[in-house]
Amino acid sequence: MAKDPTTTKKNAKKHEENIGITVKKSEDVAEWYQQVCLRGELAEYAPVKGCMIIKPNGYAIWEGIQKFFDAIIKQHKVKNVYFPLFIPESFFKKEAQHAQGFSPEVAWIANKEDEYDKERLAIRPTSETIMYDAFSRWIRSWRDLPVKINQWCNVVRWETEATKLFLRSREFLWQEGHCAYETKEEAEEETLAYLQEYKRVCEELLAFPVIAGRKTDKEKFAGAVYTTTVEALMPDGKALQCGTSHLLSQGFAKSFGISFLGRNEQQQMPWQISWGISTRLIGATVLMHSDDSGLILPPRVAPVKAMIVPIIFEESKKAVVERCYDVADVLKNAGINVEVDAREEYSSGWKYNQYEMLGVPLRIEIGPKDLEKDQVVLVRRDTRKKDFVKVKDLKESVEKTLEQMHHDLFSKAKKFLDENVVSVKKFDELVKAVEEKKLAKALWCGATECEEKIKDKTAGVNARVLPFEDNKSKPHGECVLCGKDAMNVVVFGRSY
Amino acid sequence: MAKDPTTTKKNAKKHEENIGITVKKSEDVAEWYQQVCLRGELAEYAPVKGCMIIKPNGYAIWEGIQKFFDAIIKQHKVKNVYFPLFIPESFFKKEAQHAQGFSPEVAWIANKEDEYDKERLAIRPTSETIMYDAFSRWIRSWRDLPVKINQWCNVVRWETEATKLFLRSREFLWQEGHCAYETKEEAEEETLAYLQEYKRVCEELLAFPVIAGRKTDKEKFAGAVYTTTVEALMPDGKALQCGTSHLLSQGFAKSFGISFLGRNEQQQMPWQISWGISTRLIGATVLMHSDDSGLILPPRVAPVKAMIVPIIFEESKKAVVERCYDVADVLKNAGINVEVDAREEYSSGWKYNQYEMLGVPLRIEIGPKDLEKDQVVLVRRDTRKKDFVKVKDLKESVEKTLEQMHHDLFSKAKKFLDENVVSVKKFDELVKAVEEKKLAKALWCGATECEEKIKDKTAGVNARVLPFEDNKSKPHGECVLCGKDAMNVVVFGRSY
C-alpha cells in the first residue's frame, strides 16, 4: 500500500517540531525579525553579551557578499591586506575628531600596558589610525600613489544599546577600504565610485533599492570632511545605513605626517578616503524580503538556489529519489547549486515548511506522477507560485525563474520605498509622516541647530541623507523647521 | 638616437634604490628571511609589539591558500561560520588541560568585567570552548550529526619570545575546523582526512614536502587525546609545524555537556576533532624556496604568474609596449594572471631585480628584436633559465613552464628533506645530527621523561613527529636515550 509519510504518526510528531514564526511581520517587526534570523538559522545570540554567532546559513550570505564585492574592488585595483587588531592609544589621539567620535565605544586589552610605557591598546573599532601610520612610511613620492588597500576583518564597538542580530552587535564583520591619492579630484571621484559599488551590492545582489547621497556634518564619520551613504528603508519605516564612503581629505595625512614629493618637486599631502560595508547588510536583506513563513533570500546571494524534495511512496521511492539526484546533477553541472533532501524520517510537508523558513528561493517537488510525465513541480519561495516544468526544460526554467524572482523582489522593495518617502513642507507634516512609518523629504537650512531641534522634538528623528538627485542645485524654499532659506533637500526618519 | 634608459643618470640613480638582500641564505637564515619578507613586500613589523602588518603581496598568498583549502573543505561538506572574538573566562575553566595549556598566552579585555559578574573576557586564542558551548545547544539527536564547521579568523596568543614575521606573532590569521561525530571511528578517520588535506596544501599548492605523523603526548594540543601534524624541514635545519589535526575525543563533550540521543535510543556523547592551519604557512613557503635575490613564490600560489617587461628604445617603444599588452591579453584570456610594467621612469634592469625580489615566477621580456622575430624571452625566477618562445606558442609554454617550476621546486625541497633526516641509534649521534642542522630519526621508549631529558640535555631539541610510515608497527630496538625497549620511531629536531 502506498504510504505518504506525512500521514504517519511518527512524522506528524516530527511535523510539530517544525515551529513556524509566531508573530506577523506587520504586527511586530522586531520580534518577527529575531524569529526569522533564529529559525532561519542565520545567527544566534552568543553567551558573551552583545555578540552573535553567525551560523552556516548566515555566513554563506556574507560569503556571497564578499565574493561579489571583492571581485569589484579587484577591478578597481584595490589590494587586500591585514592590519593588527590592536591599536596603540596614542594613535587615536592624533586625529582629534576621530578620537572623540570613537572613544566611547572602544574596548581595551588588559594588563599588557606596562610593555608599552603605560600605553593602552585598543581593539580596533576601525583601522584608519594604524593604517595611516603605515601610509606615512609607504608614501614617499607621487609614484607611490594611489595607495588602494582593503581588509576583510572583525571590528569591535562596545555598544550599550540592546543587541539586534546583524544590525547592532559589539563585534561585527566588515570590509574597510582605505585609499590615498595625489589629487582632491581623484579622491572625490573615488569616494563616489565606491558608494556606487555599494549601491550595486544592495540592488544587483541583495535586491533592494537605496537612496544615495551625503550625510549632514552632524552624522558624518568622525574625522571625515564629508560622508556619503546608501540608505535603505526597512518595512517598519526605519532607515538603515547600508554602506558609507568618506572623503577624509588631508586631516589624517596632517595628523600622521603623510606626505610625498609631487610631480612639481614640492612636498605635499595626499588626499584620503575610506569606505565600508558590514554584516549589517545581512540584516537589511532579511528585513526587506522575508515574510510570515520565514526567510526569503534573494536568489543571487542564496547559497542553495533550489531544494529538491522527493514525494516518497514506498513502491516508487527508488525511481523518484534517483530522478531527484539526476535532476540535481543536471542543475549542478549548469553551475546552479541545488540540494536534495531525501531523508525519510521527515515528511515532504515538514521539508516544505523547513526550506521556506530557511529561505531557499526555489523548491522542486518530484513525485511518481511527475516521473511519469517527465516533469517536476517548481515552486517559488516568495510568491509560492507553482509551475509544472518538463525535465528537459528545467535548467532554462530554473535560471529564468531565479532571475525573475530577483527582479520581482527588487520591484516590490522599490515600490515600497517610492511609496514611503513623502515630501513635506511643514514640521507637523514631517512628524505625521514619520508617525506613519514613512521617511520625510524636507527642505533644510543647513544649520546643525535645526537638525538637532528636529531630533529633540521628535525623540530621535534624524537627517538620514541628502539625496544626490535632489541636491544637484540649491533648492528653492524654506527650512522645514526655522523657515529660513533652504540649502538642501534632506530625507529625515527614524533609524536603526 | 636610441636611448636605453638603464644607461641614463636618472635611472642609474633609481637603480641604486633597488636594494638587494644583503646577507646570504647559507650564512644567516634569520636575517636573510627577514629581508626577503620585508623587501618582497610580504609583511612588516607593526607599531604594536609582537604584531605584523600583512601587505598586499603577503595577503595574496593567504588568499591563494584560502581559495585552495576552502574549496577542499566544502567538498568535505564543512560549513563556514563566525564565532565571537571574546570568550568568557569560565569557558576556559571547563576543560582543565585546555585551560592550563592556553592560560599563559591569553590576552583579556579591560574594564568590562562588571557587566559579566566580574567574569573576564578572553580574546580568542582558539575557539574550542565557545564553539562547544554552542554544540551543547545544537546537538540533540544522532540526526544532528556530524556537525562540521570552520572559521577563517584572527587569533591572539600573547607570545613572549621575539616576533618572526608569519612564524611567530601575537596575532595571526588561521582557519579552525571543528567537527563532532556519532562514532569514534568517524572522528579518527576524519582527523586523518584533514591532515591529509593539509599535506596537499603544502605539497600540491606550496610545493614543499612534509612528514605526516603523530605528536607525542607532551607536544599534543591542550585538551586532545592525540594530535597529528605535518612537519616541514626548513633550510636552517629547524622543523616547522605546518598544520595540525586533533582527536579531542569526548573530553570537551563531557566538560561542555554535549550529548545526543543515539540510534539506540541511549543518551551519549559525540566524538570531536579540531584542525587548523595559519599564516605561518606563508613563512614556511618563503623560507623553503627563496634565494639570495629574494622571494621565490611557487607558481600555483603566486597571484601574478608572469611579469611582462618591455625593453624600451625610443623608436620602437610604441610597438613593443603594444605587443606587451597584446601578449598580456592572450595570457589573461587563458586564465593566467600576468601584469605589464611599462613604466618609463624605471629601467628594465631595475625591473628585473625588483620582480625577482617580489618572487614573480616568470618574467617575459619583449624588445624590438623579439618583435621582429615574433618571439618573447621567457625567464624562470628559480633557475633564471631563458627560453625564446614564439608568440603563438606562448600560452602553452607559460603553462608548461609554470607546472615544471612547481615540480622542480618540490623535487628540490624533497631532496633536501630526504638528505637531512638521518637515522640515529645513540644519543650522541642524535646530538651530532642536530648540530649538523638535520633532523634525527630515532627510537624512543615512549616515556615523557626521556623526551624531556633529551630536550634538557640539548637545550631544546624536541620530538617533532612520530611519522605514520615508520610507526605502522612497534619498532624493534632500544630507546635512543634510556636504552629500554622502544615503542616508537620519532623525528627529533630543533624547531620554530
Structure report:
The structure is a homodimer of 496-residue chains. Chain A has 496 residues and is α+β, with helices and mostly antiparallel strands. Chain A folds into three domains: 52-288, Bira Bifunctional Protein, Domain 2 (BirA Bifunctional Protein, domain 2); 306-401, Anticodon-binding domain (Rossmann fold), CATH 3.40.50; 422-493, C-terminal domain of ProRS (Translation Initiation Factor IF3). The model of chain A is unreliable at 1-16 (pLDDT under 50). Chain A is 36% helix and 24% strand. The first copy, chain A, has helices at 9-17, 29-39, 56-75, 89-94, 96-102, 128-138, 184-205, 251-256, 280-289, 317-333, 348-357, 368-372, 394-420, 427-435, 448-457; strands spanning 43-45, 52-54, 79-80, 86-88, 107-110, 121-123, 147-156, 171-181, 211-214, 226-233, 239-249, 260-261, 267-268, 271-278, 306-310, 338-340, 362-366, 375-380, 386-390, 421-423, 439-444, 462-467, 488-493. Chain A has an eleven-stranded mixed sheet with strand order 3-7-8-14-11-10-9-22-23-21-20, sandwiched between helices. In chain A, strands 16-15-17-18-19 form a five-stranded mixed sheet, sandwiched between helices. In chain A, helix 3 runs antiparallel to helix 7 (184-205). The N and C termini of chain A lie far apart (56 Å). Chain A is globular, with a radius of gyration of 26 Å. Strand 5 (107-110) of chain A pairs antiparallel with strand 5 (107-110) of chain B.
